[in-house]
Amino acid sequence: MIESRGELFVTSKLWCSDVHPHRVLPALQDTLQKLGLEYLDLYLIHHPVSMKPAGSFVLPFNKSDLLPMDFKSVWEAMEECHKLGLTKNIGVSNFSVKKLQQLLLTAKIHPAVNQVSVFIYLFIYLLLLQATIEYNNLNCIMDLVCAFILHAILLNLLECACHYIWGFESCKVKMSPLWQQKKLRKFCEEKGIHVTAYSPLGAKGTLWGTDQVMECEILKEIAKAKGKTLAQVCLRWVYEQGVSVLVKSFNEERMRENLDIFGWKLSSEESQKIDQIPQRRAYVGLVFVSDAGPFKSVEELWDGEI
Asked: N or C: which end of the chain has fewer CB within 10 A?
């Protein structure tokens, strides 16, 4: 099915315990070794926070391990990874406007992506790490990569890929009709940073997920009127915001449904109804809040963007 590496767009993330200047390059090299690849297409800082180097990959982790991130030095290490050709693009995830501003003060290479919860992205690193542990088999790992990347490419955004290929900046965030991230999206647009939406359907069943999106009455009404699923309405709305969207499903029927967001659009009245949905951040990140850590409150963690 896959004839060449060029057909894949592979993304991975730098976990908090490796968010230290001297650990960025070794962490990326370790990821590449696990994947059996020579380079990534996109490498993201997972969260704007560090942990002690021996910190856990498993949630919840020990809050005493939390440390402030050295934005300047860590980003310089990310830039070095890019210069060495080990990743074609570098970016961030879960960064607020204020944290992006801090990063941009000294960045020579701007982030290509900010992944946020407009709700969506692939936890490829964690999935591959699990596959490595469970199977210790490169073929199994590459099968996972192919399955997830192909789904992402089909659903998503050749637009997103084009942004990366043409050198646009990008931002990966959580976003959905219930958490529209208007302020962050406006800032990223002004700075030329592309936004990628993570968990647009709410990620029900995960540690960070909720059923609020799938139980929204306004979205149910729109879906019924259009003869679409609620998920299709959500994904179409994200797509119409000019945001790249990544969806994960293990159900083949849902995968096909998630692809059916083209060839139709939301009316202006429907968009206005969605625009008026009361906003609330589903995942507040309490695991990163600690009296002894860099963020003493949820407000500090998200710089008031809650």
From this structure: N
Long-range contact set of residues 51-60: C-beta below 8 Å, sequence gap at least 24: 51/15, 51/16, 51/17, 51/19, 52/17, 53/17, 53/18, 53/20, 53/23, 54/17, 55/16, 55/17, 56/17, 57/15, 57/17, 57/126, 57/129, 59/207, 59/287, 60/207, 60/287
Alpha-carbon 215 to chain mean position: 23
Per residue in 69-107, pLDDT (tens digit) is: 999 999 999 999 999 999 999 999 999 999 999 999 999
Residue pLDDT, tens place only, 249-303:
788 898 888 889 999 999 999 999 998 888 776 667 888 999 999 999 989 998 8
Burial class of residue 243 in the structure, from the number of CB atoms within 10 Å of its CB (0-12 exposed, 13-18 middle, 19+ buried): buried
Q: What angle do CA 190, 89, 194 make, to 5 degrees?
A: 25
